[in-house]
Specification:
By secondary structure, the protein is an alpha+beta fold. The protein has a single domain, classed as Roll (2,3-Dihydroxybiphenyl 1,2-Dioxygenase, domain 1). It has 4 helices and 11 strands; from the N terminus they run βαβββαβαββαββββ. The strands form 2 sheets. It has an 8-stranded mixed barrel. Strands 10-11 form a two-stranded antiparallel ribbon. A hairpin with a 3-residue loop joins strand 10 and strand 11. The radius of gyration is 18 Å and the shape is globular.
């Protein structure tokens, strides 16, 4: 049997959490993963379809790299989204794996030909609005949801980064800030 897509790598792991701040700190202190870029997003400003119907939602998310893999922590806030459904089913943890694609519409065609439904999709990501995603109904097939992601040509800047790279309260000599990359396992 042929693969739906050409051989590809998983580019993202999406993890639903109850508290974004606690999760970021835990991944940083326990696993050394970070720094985390933090965003609040949803629809609007994105244009979202949830089970084929227009939907509004709001989430907080944080992304960090672990090698070539992007980790995405997602805290549900409100509205109609698969993240709410995941939490409502009594789960937290890995919700989806993501594959980056150059053209979402083209990448969706072989899945739709195999009658794999779209749970949620949105467009309008990034500064230019040319990014989009689709979560596919693959949990019964793959054991997890598959997300296809078309990145924006101009990603949105994060609201903040955790942990901060510069610590303005730490001074040396003539009040110059000390740039310091902290060891996540360091106490204090």
């Amino acid at each position: 049997m042929d693969s739906v897509l050409d051989r590809t790598d998983i580019g993202q792991i999406g993890i639903v959490v109850k508290n974004l701040d606690v999760a970021m700190e835990s991944y940083w202190r326990i696993a050394g993963i970070g720094p985390w870029k933090i965003f609040t997003t949803g629809a609007p400003p994105l244009n979202c379809l949830y089970h084929g119907h227009p939907a509004n939602y709001k989430i907080r998310l944080a992304t960090a790299r672990s090698g070539a893999l992007q980790m995405e922590l997602i805290e549900y806030i409100s509205g109609d989204t698969i993240h709410r459904d995941f939490l409502a089913s009594g789960r937290v943890g890995i919700e989806h794996v993501g594959i980056y694609v150059p053209d979402l519409e083209q990448a969706l065609q072989p899945y739709q030909a195999r009658n794999i439904g779209i749970l949620q999709r949105a467009d309008g990501m990034g500064m230019t609005g040319d990014g989009c995603y689709a979560y596919l109904d693959t949990e019964s097939i793959l054991g997890t949801i598959l997300e296809l992601i078309q990145s924006s040509s101009q990603p949105t800047a994060p609201e903040r980064i955790y942990p901060a790279i510069y610590y303005p309260n730490e001074r040396k000599g003539n009040n110059d800030r000390i740039p310091e990359k902290r060891n996540p396992n360091q106490q204090g």
